[in-house]
Amino acid sequence: MEVGKRREDPAGMDVDALQSFHPMIRDWFRAELGEPSEPQARAWPEIARGSNVLIVAPTGAGKTLAAFLKCIDSLISAKTETPSGRWVPGVRVLYVSPLKALNNDIYRNLEVPLRGIQRCADRAGVSLPEITKAVRTGDTPSFERQRMLRRPPDILITTPESLYLILTSARARDILRTVQYVIVDEIHAVCGTKRGTHLALSLERLCELTEKDPVRIGLSATIEPAELAAAFLGGYVWAGDAACEPPSLQGSSVGGDGTPDAEERDALLGHLVPRNVKVVKCSLTKEIDVKVMAPVDDYRDLQGGPLWTAICSEILEMIRQHRSTLVFVNNRRAAEIVAAGINGLAGEEIAKSHHGSVSKEARMEVESLLKKGQLPCLVATSSLELGIDIGAIDLVVQIESPTTIAQVVQRIGRSGHRLDAVSKGVIMTKTRGDLLRCAFAEAQMEEGYIEAVRIPEAPLDVLAQQVVACAAVKEYTLLELYGVIRRAYPYRALSLSHLKAVLAVLSDPGGAGEDAARSSKPRIVWDAINDKIRATPLGRMVAISHSGTIIDRGYYQVCLAGTDVKLGELDEEFVTESRRGEKFTLGTSAWRIERIERDRVIVTQAPGGEAKLPFWRGEGPGRPRETGLRLGRFIRTLQEKMESGDYEEWIREVCHPTERVVENLRSYIEDQIAATGAVPTDRRIVVEHFSDEAGEKRILVHCPLGSGVNAGLGFLLTKVIADQLGCTAEYMHNDDGILIHV
User: Fold this and answer.
1) Beta-bridge partners for 52
2) Helix, coil or strand: residue 151
3) Sheet bearing 686-691, strands edge to edge
4) How far apart are CA 350 and CA 366, in angstroms?
5) Does the structure show a pLDDT above 80 at 240?
6) Is there a contact between 152 and 92 (Cβ–Cβ < 8 Å)?
7) Most exposed among 281, 559, 722, 723, judged by the fewest C-beta atoms under 10 Å?
8) Range with the lowest mean pLDDT among 136-140, 498-502, 583-587, 716-720?
9) Is the dihedral of CA 696, 697, 703, 708 positive or negative?
10) How many CB atoms sit inside 10 A of residue 728's CB?
11) What is the mean pLDDT of residues 157-185?
């Protein structure tokens, strides 16, 4: 080996990655963990050089230490080398994750390296500075927040929303002026949403606050394409200017509204340079063992009792065969039903539920029980989907098909937490249609497919919120504000005219158009003559009290008057827009609203006639079009294999179905072809028409391309029906089709 040169293996791993660490950190790591994992060995040298890094590695590969350990090393070195009394208090490492539970988990898990390193130092007689840490989320008590302002922690663990609030507080934001590293965990969970767009702007506001751009470190187990996620993480800088100032528009060719023309705008875009982000993608893959199961022999004949009972019975048998089982469901109500069902069949409490409506204390208690191996089963929503350390999970059960393939990969990856352990999972189906989607999901997992992330482009509602927040803490010129916003990846191509339009609405809501709420008061003052933008007192209050992009969506139970019979659920937005006496359809029946209570709607059955179609606003983006096309191809191939007699051999090859799944799926396709003569595929849309029990006309359009496609298609179809037939048409849609009421 040549002296002074780093040894690298063929995969680009730095074999001597630990040599650059403080001796106490190096001794602790080797004693407790041995040699670095691939993502650690490749990421640490990049972080040490000040490079931005995106680490993509499976569960159990050591991503958290890959991100944190070099930051801790830098902190120890800096504190050791700084003379006593000269250390400037402030946050040096900022960790941001989308889940409060994950933040609390990271806080606890950091105790292991910090205490271990200190013990090594004590044994060696070496004095090390104390590294402090704290969590700041919506659950953090006021007195703890005040203490952070007086004595800022070295490491601050927070959420995107709490980061925004700190940046928007004139006093609190000062603790972030010293930030040198920003770690964005589970980046795949935010970058494809408006929540991620909101975070991207907050990161640029942070850069504006710090003397030097902090090193950005992103972490993800599953994301495609990694290069796009890296671009989102990095954002942009204005070329040739360390202070990241935007170029001047003086002397530009501008239109009548002061906006640069197309040629000038292209020139402006040329001044933006993407920050370089190194992608560290682990070459190791985690083995996944997953199978699809049906809880009944024949979905057409449920003589054995309620379906939920059959599902809970199957899961109970699995629980008894494993030490620790994690069950994922798609909503909170299902979590309660399944936990209660399992306990009822077991005759004792062996399962607990975990979701957003459970108190913080109760969630932390069940997480602790699961981690200690003292809870046989936990039933959860997406609240436990991400990288929380929940100990050794033997089996993950997913009830119903998930929205995306990436989601089920993430969930099943929670079992077998070590990199060398097999992630074992079961997808339990609820209906025949669900069975088809679950079989497809497993086939895609076997193929290694996950959906490509799609980053929202310049959403103006998020922009408006952040503009008010910016103006709440300092005064901006138009170009200063434009320069900060354009550095965020989602707003890299934002036109000045769009920013001006947002400023116009915020500064003069009543003058924004005839439909504007004229009672609204300005959130900002835009002094175009003196080129000054600042927040109004109302704007400063709103910036703090109405922040974030998470929708708190609720549901109302629909109950039959005079009974305890529950007919279903309605979206709170639909209920808000409804009145007593109005009629709506649910199932195939029409119902009249008798009264609306705090959390339920009391109804009676109504005769035929005009009845509204209810709507449910989805909490996620729905099935992506590319996944919909793949599902369509899967259905087409399935039909072809049935026609050629190769169905059983093919279905057992592409996924691992039980005999029940094979037969239920066969009967489902055969019944659909018998009824309509065709099944919907990537090349075919199937349309059915019928009358419900009240005589109302219904049109059902089967299209597997996802809710995004079906929303637009439904709008066009109802418009054509209204124009050509002269009648009113309403529609509702989901990932699998459109229901039109004529």
Assistant:
1) 277
2) coil
3) 686-691, 697-702, 737-741, 730-734
4) 11
5) no
6) no
7) 723
8) 583-587
9) negative
10) 11
11) 96
Give the angle subtended at the CA of 713 by the CAs of 711 and 715, to the nearest 5°: 70
SS3 347: coil
Q: Tell me the angle at which helices 647-654 and 659-676 cross, rounded to the nearest 10 degrees.
A: 120
**Residue 370: CB atoms within 10 Å:** 25
Q: Which two tokens stand for residue 516?
A: 């504007």
| Helix or strand run (H / E) with residue 280 | strand 277-281
Provide the H-helix boundaries in 546-681: 572-576, 625-644, 647-654, 659-676
Domains and CATH numbers, the chain: 17-245+262-281 (3.40.50.300), 288-447 (3.40.50.300), 460-545 (1.10.10), 555-605 (no CATH), 658-741 (3.30.1360)
Mean pLDDT for 336-362 is: 85
Specify the DSSP element, H or E, that contains 468.
helix 460-473
Mean pLDDT of the chain: 86
Residue 214 DSSP one-character state: P
Kindly tell me if the per-residue pLDDT of 658 is higher than 50. Answer: yes
Q: 270: which residues sit within 8 A by CB, 6+ positions away?
A: none
The residue to which tokens 């490749």 are assigned: 42
Contact 208, 41 (CB under 8 A): no
Asked whether the CA dihedral 501, 507, 511, 513 is positive or negative, the reply is positive
Q: Say which amino acid occupies 305.
A: G
| Phi and psi, residue 53, nearest 5° | -135, 135
Query: Whole-angstrom Cα distance, residue 344 to residue 78?
Result: 57
In degrees and rounded to multiples of 5, residue 379 shows phi and psi of -105, 120
Strand partners, 327: 379, 397
- Helix, strand, or coil (residue 508): coil
pLDDT at residue 286 in the model = 74
Half-sphere exposure of 352 (CA within 13 A, CB side): 17
For residue 388, pLDDT over 80 is answered with: no
- Residue 402 to residue 559: CA distance in whole angstroms: 28
Q: Would you state the structure tokens that stand for residue 597, as one six-digit string?
A: 């209570």
Q: In degrees, to the nearest 5, what angle opens at C-alpha 618 toward C-alphas 613 and 620? A: 165
CA distance 402 to 570: 21
The two structure tokens encoding residue 104: 């609390």
The residue to which tokens 């890296």 are assigned: 230
What is the separation, in whole angstroms, between the first and last Cα of the chain?
Answer: 79
Q: Give the least confident one: 435-439, 549-553, 732-736.
A: 549-553
Task: Say if CB 590 and CB 696 are below 8 A apart.
Answer: yes
The CB-side HSE value for 374 (13 A sphere, CA atoms) comes to 6
Amino acid occupying residue 323: R
Q: Are 196 and 397 in contact (CB under 8 A)?
A: no
Here the tokens at position 45 are 């040298």
Query: What is the model's pTM?
Result: 0.82
